[in-house]
């Protein structure tokens, strides 16, 4: 639109050469002031972007070029002359029109300073005012003029003193509201809040209903003019949303809105399930609806309410099933622990996994959800499962299987050719998504895969996509696949690829001791402990490891301070694992955090001890200064992205599956002793040291721990951000 108005301004300027400037007749003293005001306003406009104008900073371009400025002067002069020469106007009318011309100019000045109108709209504004003046003098409506111009022009005309009594004013205001809604469709309801009785309100409300159903629901529930207007609209979708807005459980129906609108399901059939939404029935209906929506989305359709459906499916799955099987993690009898899952079908279990990814425990997935998916299938084939799900969230399910070491089993449940195609598709199309989630999942999955054939297949597909992206000059695709290619190749030591040097990111193979030291050269370590039943054992073992001549232990009311008595200065602060039921452990953490803050002590190493369900508490309190984070809980690997959002450059150690206190303590010992000796943390060397210490008994558990240089998803995020920052 800006281009069009600029072109119009140029043509308007050229037309001035065929329009002669009228001679100004003698101006009566009574109207001289009004003429002077117009001249003054013209002068203000020419100086709007001048360095002497206090409103705007110094610019090097005038508001109007010389041709347009000349045209503007001619048109305004001729308007003044025409008013004075018009014998059909009495003195009051001439006063009115001169005031109107000046208000048009001052209206532009005010709007321009508020940045609500562009400079390019000044010529169209003057032309529109001439047209509106002609219509008013002919006793005609100015509505066609308002409709033909930009809203910024129309607003100035609507507020003009000389046009206030025109018959087209009311309809013009409605047109301007319509135009505002057309320019800002995401703000339709917000705009209509001020103009609920606008003549276009019905059609605009219908448009809003198809754009954002939840927003319309919120507005329809309010007992004001707009709420009542929404309730009066006869359109079927608006009527459904309006009806739901007046009920307490209206949002419970939202996941099914598209099917309700298309009459595939009725409100009455959903109501019994909504009334008993703690049963599996409501969850199962959500699953069936999501599968139907997935089929439609696969065909290019976009069902209404799909986001509301997905969110409700996720929260209900966690609330009704995942929380329960997670809470029974200490129950050895699987029939008792996973009894809640027996009423679920394979499709129900599938969505528990992919949507409950961040909440589900390792054992809940490996021993509960995953095996029961196939146990309940007549033909337990994984390709049949994905077809049944219309491949909805299949990349997320592959990522979960890779993270929990069930990918070989999953791929083994289909023909090898199908498995190859699936893994190729897993790697394809990463540049087409709005987020990096799929690319990060691919990176993380590669690190979790030990099958050489699958790794080779993924690497080959990444390289093929990289080549294609470069040929098509798809920058985003080229960056994503180039990074993945380099990261995957770095996993083989034969290639001798230094990711830190290659990408210009913080070291990943080594944690330099200098990066961990504060201004005084001291390293501060903070350990978060929790009062679960295992805490007494691991905390006692933790203290025993530092009960020697190399360390000094000081006990406080809520925490312990462990300071290196020899070697490099290191202090470990660990809150006591006090009674969890009374939340004394959390209070101890907060007390320690307050102490550290008061004494300007910034932890650069953070250790989480305790079960995975405590991890959100640690993340919530994680200091931004952390450079190294050890997640000593089951499935901590699933929380890497949350850690990186707080500490973007942090190196992270975590377990993909079941963590072990012995392994955690061995890692703490190795890290603290290396630093006390004044050495950097070389992860490849340190990993070999810990592997020997934990021995054969804990080898399997230790193998599930991922060192910082193998956290490929985290490395990918850091490298990707670095590339785009440099661009």
Descriptive notes:
- This protein is 58% helix and 6% strand.
- The chain is α/β, with parallel strands linked by helices and 727 residues long.
- The chain has 4 domains: 2-183, no CATH class; 247-410, no CATH class; 415-508 and 714-727, no CATH class; 511-710, Rossmann fold (3-Layer(aba) Sandwich), CATH 3.40.50.
- Strand 3 and strand 4 (559-564) form a beta hairpin.
- The strands form 2 sheets. It has an 8-stranded mixed beta sheet.
- The protein is elongated.
How would you summarize what this structure contains?
The chain is α/β, with parallel strands linked by helices and 727 residues long. The protein contains 37 helices and ten strands. Helix 2 (29-46) runs antiparallel to helix 3 (66-85) and helix 4 packs across helix 7 (151-158).
Return the domain count.
4
Q: What is the percent of helical residues?
A: 55-70%
Q: Under the CATH scheme, which architecture of the largest domain would be assigned?
A: 3-Layer(aba) Sandwich
Structural class: alpha/beta
Can you count the helices?
Answer: 37
Largest sheet: 8 strands, mixed
Give the CATH class of the largest domain: Alpha Beta
Low-confidence stretches: 1-18, 50-60
Overall, the morphology is: elongated
> What's the mean pLDDT score?
89
Strands side by side in the biggest sheet: 3-4-5-2-6-7-8-10
């Amino acid at each position: 639109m800006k281009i069009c108005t600029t072109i119009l301004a140029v043509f308007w300027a050229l037309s001035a050469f065929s329009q002669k400037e009228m001679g100004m007749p003698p101006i009566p003293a009574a109207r001289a002031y009004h003429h002077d005001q117009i001249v003054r306003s013209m002068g203000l406009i020419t100086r709007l972007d001048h360095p002497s104008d206090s409103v705007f900073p110094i610019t090097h371009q005038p508001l109007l070029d010389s041709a347009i400025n000349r045209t503007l002067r001619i048109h305004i002069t001729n308007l003044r002359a025409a008013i004075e020469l018009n014998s059909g106007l009495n003195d009051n009318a001439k006063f009115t029109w001169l005031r109107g011309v000046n208000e048009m100019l001052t209206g532009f000045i005010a709007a321009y300073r508020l940045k609500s109108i562009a400079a390019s709209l000044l010529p169209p504004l003057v032309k529109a005012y001439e047209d509106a003046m002609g219509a008013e003098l002919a006793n005609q409506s100015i509505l066609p003029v308002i409709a033909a111009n930009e809203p910024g022009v129309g607003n100035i005309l609507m507020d003009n003193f000389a046009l206030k009594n025109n018959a087209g004013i009311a309809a013009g205001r409605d047109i301007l509201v319509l135009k505002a809604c057309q320019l800002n469709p995401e703000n339709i309801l917000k705009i209509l809040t001020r103009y609920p009785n606008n003549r276009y309100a019905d059609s605009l409300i219908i448009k809003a209903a198809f754009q954002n159903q939840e927003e319309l629901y919120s507005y329809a529930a309010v007992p004001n003019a707009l709420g009542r207007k929404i309730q009066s609209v006869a359109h079927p979708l608006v009527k459904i949303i309006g009806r739901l807005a007046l009920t307490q459980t209206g949002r419970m129906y939202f996941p099914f809105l598209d099917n309700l609108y298309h009459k595939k399901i009725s409100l009455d059939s959903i109501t019994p399930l909504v009334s008993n939404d703690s049963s599996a029935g409501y969850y199962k209906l959500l699953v069936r609806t999501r599968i139907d929506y997935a089929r439609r989305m696969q065909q290019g359709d976009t069902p209404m309410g799909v986001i509301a459906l997905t969110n409700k499916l996720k929260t209900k799955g966690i609330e009704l099933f995942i929380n329960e099987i997670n809470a029974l993690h200490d129950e050895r009898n699987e029939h008792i622990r996973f009894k809640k899952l027996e009423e679920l079908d394979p499709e129900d279990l599938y969505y528990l996994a992919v949507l409950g990814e961040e909440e589900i425990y390792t054992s809940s997935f490996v021993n509960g959800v995953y095996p029961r998916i196939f146990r309940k299938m007549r033909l337990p084939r994984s390709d049949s499962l994905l077809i049944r799900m219309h491949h909805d969230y299949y990349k997320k399910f592959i990522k979960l299987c890779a993270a929990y070491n069930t990918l070989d089993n999953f791929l083994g449940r289909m023909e090898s050719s199908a498995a190859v195609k699936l893994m190729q598709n897993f790697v394809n199309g990463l540049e087409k998504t709005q987020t990096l989630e799929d690319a990060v999942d691919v990176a993380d999955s590669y690190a979790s895969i030990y099958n050489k054939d699958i790794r080779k297949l993924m690497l080959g597909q990444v390289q093929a996509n990289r080549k294609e992206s470069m040929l098509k000059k798809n920058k985003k695709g080229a960056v994503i696949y180039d990074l993945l290619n380099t990261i995957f190749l770095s996993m083989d030591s034969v290639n001798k690829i230094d990711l830190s040097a290659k990408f210009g990111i913080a070291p990943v193979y080594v944690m330099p001791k200098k990066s961990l030291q504060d201004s005084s050269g001291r390293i501060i370590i903070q350990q978060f402990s929790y009062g679960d039943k295992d805490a007494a054992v691991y905390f006692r073992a933790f203290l025993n490891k530092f009960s020697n001549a190399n360390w000094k232990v000081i006990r406080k009311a809520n925490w312990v301070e462990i300071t290196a008595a020899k070697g490099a200065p290191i202090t470990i602060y660990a809150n006591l694992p006090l009674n969890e039921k009374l939340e004394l452990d959390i209070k101890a953490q907060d007390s320690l955090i307050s102490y550290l803050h008061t004494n300007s002590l910034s932890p650069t190493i953070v250790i989480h001890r305790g079960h995975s369900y405590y991890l959100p508490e640690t993340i919530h309190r994680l200091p931004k200064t952390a450079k190294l984070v050890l997640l000593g809980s089951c499935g901590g690997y699933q929380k890497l992205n949350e850690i990186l959002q707080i500490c973007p450059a942090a190196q992270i150690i975590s377990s993909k599956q079941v963590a072990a206190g012995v392994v955690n303590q061995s890692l703490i010992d190795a890290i603290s002793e290396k630093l006390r000796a004044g050495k950097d943390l070389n992860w490849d060397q340190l990993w070999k040291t810990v592997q020997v210490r934990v021995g054969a008994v804990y080898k399997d558990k230790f193998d599930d721990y991922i060192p910082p240089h193998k956290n490929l998803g985290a490395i990918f995020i850091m490298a990707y951000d670095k590339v785009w920052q440099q661009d």
